[in-house]
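chain below, 87 aa
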Amino acid sequence: MPSTSTITAQHVRELLRSPDPDPRLVLLEGRPRVVSAAEAGTDRYRGAVEVVSRDDLTARLGSADPSDQELETLASRLQTVVAELGG
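prediction:
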């Protein structure tokens, strides 16, 4: 995953394709990461901000296989939400 503070289509794709049964996209120290729900609750991720779970994201998508353009749009929307939160 890119080491950047911006949520990208690659982050969204990684979340959707994660082999974990309950992955989350979180921000830790300003960097997006895809982690399992169980891992998100550990000391290693203390202070991380959950952006979205795969379940929530797929419920909003209405499609299990979004296009590259849809991934870009989703990433942009998620980044906007994070920016409004001050993340």
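The chain has a mean pLDDT of 89. The first strand starts at residue 23 and ends at 28.
thats it, cya
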